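does this look right to u?? S-adenosylmethionine version
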Amino acid sequence: MAAVLMGERAPADARVLVLGAGGGAETRAFAETHPQWTFDAVDPAEAMLDLAAHTLGPHVERVRMHHGYVDQAPTGPFHAATSLLTLHFLPPEARRDTAAQVRRRLRPGAPFVVMHMSFPQNDDAERQLWIERHVHYLVANGIAPEDAVKAREAISADVPVLTPEQDRHILHDVGFTDITEFFSTFTFRGWVCYA
Ligand SMILES: C[S@@+](CC[C@H](N)C(=O)[O-])C[C@H]1O[C@@H](n2cnc3c(N)ncnc32)[C@H](O)[C@@H]1O
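got this back:
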């Protein structure tokens, strides 16, 4: 989905920013479908970048790795950017600053594809309800109950999940336009927007 959305506007030889590249699975998928795209992959976890180098195989030649946060990314300008399963780790102000920094690195009109945990939470009870639903869904999909409990604790303590409205406002506030929700499944949402 992300490659399709970026590919609508990015040229065949696009330069793409991957923020929170993790183990490199999404960068590899983009590289496989777009043989001339080049990538700047940013992640604060060195071990994840090492894993990404391995995951990418021969495509690694088209990927520059940057250890750190968005401020370690080159200034671009990029034809497209993506941040998958990453921005939910950032508190609101850091999320806003990161989104603004991504936008500054994009060419005017370039797409930014974002997807992460985001769910309704009018009060703490509703937040807990959605976290419980997420945990039950993990168990229903074969995750060991004791690991699911750890996930519940980690999300409750360390993941500053926002509501879909708040996430959308952040993208809007930093200047992204035509913000469109393209993905919605249980506790996750995805948007495409344009610099
Ligand atoms: C759940 S993984 C997702 C990896 C990959 N995007 C994927 O979808 O498979 C989240 C990644 O975000 C990275 N991360 C956490 N905070 C970040 C930040 N502020 N900026 C960039 N990456 C961050 C973590 O190190 C981790 O590798």
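DSSP finds seven helices and seven strands in the chain. idk if thats expected tbh
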